[in-house]
Amino acid sequence: MLDIAALTKTFAGSAAVEEATFSVGLGELVCLLGPSGCGKSTLLRMIAGLTGADSGRIGIDGKDVTQLQANRRPTAMVFQSHALWNHMSVAQNVAFGLRVQGLPRAAIAEKTRAALNLVGLNGFGTRLPAQLSGGQAQRVALARCLVVEPKVLLMDEPFSALDAHLRKNLREELKLLQRRLKLTTIFVTHDQEEAMELADRIVVMNAGRIEQIGPPGNLYLEPQTLQVAQFIGNMNRFDAAVVNDRADWYGHSIAIAGADGPITLLCRPEDLRAAPDGAFGTASRVIDLGALLKVSLITDTGDQLTWLCPRADAPAVGARLALTPARLHLFRGGHRIGTVLPGPQLLRMPKETAWC
Known about the structure:
This protein is an alpha+beta fold. It has two domains: about 1-230, Rossmann fold (3-Layer(aba) Sandwich); about 235-350, CATH 2.40.50.140. It has helices spanning about 40-50, 90-100, 105-120, 135-145, 165-180, 190-200, 215-220, 225-230, and strands at about 1-10, 15-25, 30-35, 55-60, 65, 75-80, 150-155, 185-190, 200-205, 210-215, 235-245, 245-250, 250-255, 260-265, 270-275, 280-290, 290-300, 305-310, 320, 325, 330, 335-340, 345-350. Strand 16 (about 280-290) and strand 17 (about 290-300) form a beta hairpin. About 35% of the residues are buried.
């Protein structure tokens, strides 16, 4: 449905988007995810035709639309600020695109009612935007896009200004509606939880470039770059050196075959386990998250580890404890080189061994 090929945009000699290439299938919801300033909104605006591309190609449903003006592209965009006209009623806001298309008045009225019903705002047509809550205003903005029946729906952080509970509810409503309509959608967000909940696939961006593309679970379990690993979920990081196929991790010797040299070891908080003996750190804080507890551990070397543990294993603040990794992600030069499941290979190093 949507093909992006080597799309590039430069501002004042600096690349905002560099050689972006990916495709979106019919009915697929893809999230552009990354920190502020990574180029995700610029990429979305190029797809919408609101920002011109310096080079590259945009194809929608087999047609090259790279040079088409925004109003001639089969897209519709929901903005962060919802951008409703305050002097128009809800129905007039939703119907605006249909009036521009020159549809008969009866058809406009019927399509407007149907669009408002889709987003759960049946009966709100006569209200003004000032009479709506933030969530209702964003539903109107969504209805205004849906009513023109776009081939591609574009959404630029539409829920970021709303409170957390409302954001979650609207995400669930959007996903159900998107699946029911089989609407091809690109959703921009800097919120990794939002992307994980919504997306069929995530495009992770950093400094204008695409770092990795894949389903949420793949990005979480097998991040291909250090940037993706540290942006998707939480990671404990440890820089070490592999010597004779072994590396030190806080006093533990770990077998890492064929990778001698500097290495970065990453471990997710839920992949840490309490050790049966020994102590290499002190619990500095314990936060009750309900099903799990979040423990901050200050190691004997002064580093901090974060551990998500079952309630039965929760230590008291000030307790001495040792943790071992059940899974380590290995990176060199910023790129993934593998995963280690230490298990029985995990050995306690002699006390006289120096820290790496």
